[in-house]
Write the structure tokens for this entry.
Amino acid sequence: MKAVLDASVFFSELPIDGELYTTPLVCDELLDIRAKGNFEKFCAKGLRVLSPGQESMNAVRSAAKTSRDSGVISKTDEELLALTHELGAILYTDDFAIQNVAGVMNLETHPILQRKARQVRWKYRCCGCGKYYGHDGDCPVCGAAIKRKLK
């Protein structure tokens, strides 16, 4: 079994076996001694650090637009999803936005310490005039903030 690991795996004690992968940006997030120690344990079990290709990154960005999570997921999240897509792996993460985009891409995810996220569709509504938009930002009608809401 191929598995791509999010940073939250390294902060837990979850035992994961198989072909293990993560991305360089996840490694950059591992700052505390416990996470670094767990990273070293996984490296001893054969963990590989890989960067995904541009085509997979583009697929992730497209899926994030579809799920309306593009303003929420980080570059690290995009790399994790793209690598999971390329490898046909399972993604271990507790991040709900990542799980939401993964659902659009038909990628399998496995929660670490939290419940599995349900598929979420977002809508954007102006706090001032109540008009709906396909994005966040400032309302062109009244100038108030456009906020993300559950559909």
